[in-house]
Amino acid sequence: MKTIRLEDLEKSIASALQYVSHHHPPDYVRALKQAYIEEDNRYAKNAILQILINSKLSASAGRPICQDTGIAHVFLQIGMDVRFSSDAQPMPSLQEVADNAVIAAYTHPDNPLRATTVGEPLGARKNTGNNAPAVLHITMCRGDALRVTVSAKGGGATSRPGLPC
């Protein structure tokens, strides 16, 4: 049975959220480069070029690709032979771990990200100021591995009904 410290999981999630704020996925960049090569319309070609330039600048400077840094989604695929440990007592829930990671990522002093999450969407709609809570998706599977995927859904991405995991 594999044991994973919740403190390590929290740091990994926070680090991944910072990373996705300033890096496009490699397959997306490759597809844009190919689209740029194949595009005939000069206006469309220029628009693609601007996206590619912005993507490169964002990655090299470690600054967000877009001012809308999204609502944090954390996907955990947990093997049935995984157990968690923590120095904290009582041991925090996975939701608390994800929320603390979001707070750490979105309030990082070197690269704070824009908080857009409201605490009670059907109530007062007050911004939490730290982008918590995370939207946590948990899938149980066979084995002793933990797979973590993060996504910052913003800029209209919440209009899509789902993402493959």
From TrEMBL:
Molecular function terms from GO: 4 iron, 4 sulfur cluster binding; lyase activity; metal ion binding
Residues in domain Fe-S hydro-lyase tartrate dehydratase alpha-type catalytic?
A: 11-158
Annotated keywords: 4Fe-4S, Iron, Iron-sulfur, Lyase, Metal-binding
| Record flagged with keyword Lyase | yes
| Presence of keyword RNA-binding | no
| InterPro entries named among the record's database cross-references | Fe-S_hydro-lyase_TtdA-typ_cat
Pfam families assigned: Fumerase
Q: Which family does it belong to?
A: Belongs to the class-I fumarase family.
Instruction: Please report the name of this protein according to its UniProt entry.
Output: Fumarate hydratase
Q: Native species of this protein?
A: Advenella kashmirensis (strain DSM 17095 / LMG 22695 / WT001) (Tetrathiobacter kashmirensis)
